[in-house]
Amino acid sequence: MEDEIVLVLPATRQTLCGGSQTRLNRSPPNPSSYFSSAIQPSSGFKKPLNTLFSLLLSSRPPLSSFLVKPAHSNPLRFPPPLGCHSNEKKAYLAYVSEGLGNFHDWNMVMKYQMKNGSLFNSPSATAAALIHNQNDGCLDYLTSLLDKFGNAVPTVYPLDLYVRLCMVDTLYKLGITRHFRVEIQNVLDEAYRCWVEGDVQIFMDVVTCALAFRLLRINGYEVSSDPLAKITKEGDYMSSCKDRFKDVYAALEVFKASHIIYQEELGFGEQNSMSTDFLKKEISTASNSIHREVDDALKLPFNGSLERMSTRRNIEHYNVDNRLILKTTYSSLNISNEDFLRLAVDDFNACQSIYREEIKDLERWVMEFRLDKLKFARQKTAYCYFSAASTFPSPELSDARISWAKSCMLTTVMDDFFDGGGSIDELVNLVHTVEKWNVDVQNDCCSEEVRILFLAIKDTASSNIDKAFKWQERDITSHVIEIWVDVVKSMLREAIWARDGSVPTMREYIENGLLSFALGPIVPLAIYFVGPRLSEEIVQSSEYLKLFELMSTYGRLLNDIHTFKRESKAGQLNAVPLYMSHRKNTGIGEQEAVEEIKMLMENHRREMMKLVLETKGSIVPKACKDAFWSMCNVVNLFYAKDDGYTGNAILDVVKEIIYDPVYHRSML
C-alpha cells in the first residue's frame, strides 16, 4: 500500500468517548488563580501560563511524531504538505501547529485566528498559539472552554461549520429534509453569515467553500461564485499530492458547484471541464464509496437526476462507519448517523405504501373513463405517476401527485390521437368541444374516441377546480379551461402542418411546440396543490410565464433531438429536420444541427436554473419553481439517450421508486 503521512498522537492527547474529547489537567480548579498571572499591559506574559496550559503543551507531539508508515484500517490521515499549493500548505501547518513547536512561524499561524479567539476552533492548536504568542483572544477562548466543560474539552469547539454543512447535505441526500426544516435553516443562516463576512471557516479550503456555495445557492441565498472561483484557482486541489482521497472529494464538490453557476459567471465556468476531466481520470483509483458517488455525479449532475432516484441510491450506499478527520479520528453523529439512516428507510418505504394505493386509484380511473379502450394510445400510468411521485414525494402532496399523473396520462393519449389516432374531422371536433366546454357529449362529439377524451379531460379539470378552491380559496376555472384549449389548438395546428406538408419557421414551430408538448396541464395545475398561495397576479406574471416557456421549450427540443429519425419517417414535424431545412444553404448536417440545438437548450436550462434559484425580485414561491425544474429532470430522464418514454427502458427505475422497498446492508 502507498505510504501516507500519519499523525501519531501522544498518550496524553488521546481522546475520550470514542475520540470526541481531549483531557486537560486543570489545576488549580479556580480559574482566578491563573488570570492573575496572565496578561500585563504592553508587556505580554511575565511568565508561562500556569499549570493548565503548561501541562497541555508539555505533551504536544514533536515534529518527529509525523511518521511515514503504511496506513492501514482507518488511520488518522492528513493531506501531506509537500507538493501541494503553498496556501493550502500554510493552512495545513497552522491546523497542526501544536505539533511543530519552535520550528513553526507562529506569526503566520495567527493569521488563521477566528473571531472567537481560536485557531480552527481547536483547543490544542489555540493553546499552542497562546504559549508562543501570548494572545488575549486565545486565552479568552480557552478559559471559556474550561468554564463550560471542565477538565475534558471537545477536540473541536464549536463544531466545525463544515461538519454541520455535511449534516445538511446528508439530510438532502437521504430525502428527509422536511423533518429538519428549522435545524437546516439555522445552519444555512450561519453559513450565509460566514460567507458574507468572509469567515475563514468557509474560505480556508475548497471543499468547504464549494459545499457551502452549493447548499446556499440551491436554498435561495444570494451568493456569488467569485470567491469560489478565486479559491479554486489559488488552491491546486488537483495537484500531485499523494492523498487522492482529499483531492477526489475536492474535485467532486467543485464539479457539483459548477453545475449551478449562472451564464454570466464565466470566472468559474472552466472549473466544470477541469474537474470533470480530473474525476474521470481518478475514478479508477478511488475507493468504492467515492467511486460510486463520482460515477453518479458524472452520469447525473444537478439537472440529470430525479431526487427520489438519488435518495434511494444514497440510502442503499450510506456509510454508517464514516469518520471525520480532526485532531483525532472523530466519529461525528452529524455525518455517520444511523438514526438518520433508519428514518430515511422508514420514510421511503412508508411513502411507497401511499404511492401503491394512489396508482391503484389511477388504474381504476383509467378503466372508469375507458381510456384503456383507445387502441391507438400508449397507456403510461406507471410512468406518469412515477414522474409525479418523484416531483412531490411527501405524503401530504397527494392532490399534486394525482393532478400531475392524470394530466400526464391524458396528454399522452391526446398526443397519440393527434399524431394519427384520429381523423382530421375528429381532431377539429375535439378542439371545438373543448373550446365550448359545456356541451352535450352525446350530440356534440362526433365519435366515441372524442367522447372518451373529452369526458376524461373535463373530469380531470373539474377535480382540479374543486380541490384548488380548498387549497387556494379562489376559483381557477378560467385558467384550467385556457390551458386545455391551448393544448388542443396547438396539437391541431401541428397536425395540420404535417398533413398539408407545410414548413413553418423555426420561431413558429417553437412557439407552437412549447404548447403542443403539453406540459401546461401537468405542472401549472399541479402546483396549485403544493401549499403556497398562487394569486392571479403570480400566475400571469412575466416570471411565471418565463418559467413555463423555458421548461416547455427545453422539453420540446430534447424530445425532438432524440426522436427526429422516427418522426421524420412518420411524416411528423420535428425541430432537427426543420432546422436543417432553414439552413440548407449552409450544408449543415444532422449531427451539427443536433449540437447547435443542444447549445440552445443549454442556454435555456441555465436561464431557467437562475430563475428557479434566485429569490431577489421573485414572486413565484420556491416550491412552485422547483416543480418546473423537476419537470426538466423528468424529461432528461425519459430522453437521456432515446425516446425512453415510449419504450420500456426505465421500468426498473419506476419499480424502485414505487414498488420495491429500500434496505441497507447494515439492517439485513
Number of domains: 3
Number of helices: 30
Shape: elongated
Assigned CATH superfamily of the largest domain: Farnesyl Diphosphate Synthase
Biggest sheet strand line-up: 2-3-5
The termini sit apart by: 32 Å
The CATH architecture of the largest domain: Orthogonal Bundle
Largest sheet: 3 strands, antiparallel
What's the CATH C level of the largest domain?
Mainly Alpha
* Residue runs with pLDDT of under 50 for 5 or more positions: 1-85, 239-245
What is the fold-level CATH name, i.e. the topology of the largest domain? Farnesyl Diphosphate Synthase
Strand content: under 5%
What do the pLDDT scores average to?
Answer: 81
Pathway: Plant hormone biosynthesis; gibberellin biosynthesis; Hormone biosynthesis
Family: Belongs to the terpene synthase family.
Domain Terpene synthase metal-binding: 369-607
Keywords: Lyase, Magnesium, Metal-binding
Quick overview of this protein structure:
This protein has 668 residues and is mainly alpha-helical. The chain has helices at residues 32-35, 51-58, 86-95, 106-109, 123-133, 136-149, 161-174, 181-197, 200-203, 206-218, 226-234, 244-258, 266-282, 288-299, 307-316, 338-368, 381-391, 398-421, 424-436, 441-444, 448-472, 477-500, 506-516, 523-526, 536-539, 542-569, 575-581, 590-613, 622-638, 651-658, and strands spanning 3-7, 15-16, 21-23, 66-70, 152-154, 324-325, 329-330.
Give a structural overview:
By secondary structure, this protein is mainly alpha-helical. The protein contains 30 helices and seven strands. The protein folds into three domains: 152 residues, no CATH class; 180 residues, Glycosyltransferase (Alpha/alpha barrel), CATH 1.50.10.130; 289 residues, Farnesyl Diphosphate Synthase. The strands form three sheets. Strands 2-3-5 form a three-stranded antiparallel β-sheet. The protein is elongated and about 95 Å long. Its EC number is 4.2.3.19.
